[in-house]
Amino acid sequence: EVQLQASGGGLVQPGGSLRLSCAISGFTFSSYPMSWARQVPGEGLETVSVISSRGSNTRYADSVQGRFTISRDNAKNTLYLQMNSLKPDDTAVYYCARPKYLGLGADLDSRGQGTLVTVSS
Question: Could you tell me if 30 and 53 are in contact, meaning their C-beta atoms sit under 8 angstroms apart?
Fold first, then answer.
């Protein structure tokens, strides 16, 4: 069974930082690209970043470029998202996911339970 469990969300002030983690099991993590996506209630799902299977290639949505960093530890089956300079517009539920290919527009094969990030003063 594929499991993707995101954690690390919370309440942070504008300009602050958070690091999200995602523990993965049920498939060979090191063989697949991975992504982080977010969703504001009532709106669609937005992929904000993707990373290649070995971590050598990354891509970011314009909305987070220069502020967010995606990374992975294949030995620990864990995906990360470092979020800096957070803005109120970053408020959303964040999901780790397995995309069909390495691309911001890729459909998702799997998506786990999300973690809520709230940016507010």
Answer: yes
